[in-house]
Design a protein that fits this description.
Layout lengths: L5 H12 L5 H11 L2 H11 L11 H18 L18 H10 L37
């Protein structure tokens, strides 16, 4: 693990160890209050340009990957529940997820139609026409 990943690794562990029903208030919000430097670092990426994406160092890539692991844990809140989930992460509401992402300077990407780069399939409803293109029913 690279030292730049440490804040995310610590948050990851706290999320997995948390045994309550207010993950945002008890874990995420306090973590965010200590991450002003992380927000500024993420803001520096907003203005970068590239073709098609800006170049980043390996360390920056590792750091962004660590953030993606946190986002994936939070997204489990919106996945269908099964008996054997394999994960025991306290869920967050859509509003709390949005607050967390907003606090880090992230913006939602809104696309009218389904695109596999911007959307992850959570559940599938069979269309009457088997050849029909995928369409969005709900965005989580």
């Amino acid at each position: 693990m690279h030292s730049d990943q440490l804040p995310y690794r610590q948050l990851h562990d706290e999320m997995l160890e948390y045994d309550g029903d207010a993950l945002y208030d008890d874990v995420l919000a306090p973590w965010l209050r200590q991450q002003d430097g992380e927000r500024r670092w993420l803001d520096t990426h907003r203005g970068r340009r590239g073709d098609p994406v800006p170049a980043i160092t390996p360390e920056e890539s590792w750091r962004l990957y660590a953030l993606s692991r946190i986002v994936q844990l939070l997204q489990l809140s919106f996945a269908p529940r099964t008996r054997d989930e394999g994960w025991s992460v306290a869920p967050v509401s859509r509003e709390d997820f949005a607050r967390f992402m907003d606090a880090l300077g992230m913006e939602a990407v809104n696309r009218a139609g389904f695109h596999p780069f911007y959307h992850e399939i959570v559940t599938v409803d069979q269309a009457a026409d088997e050849d029909a293109a995928p369409e969005l029913v709900d965005v989580l």
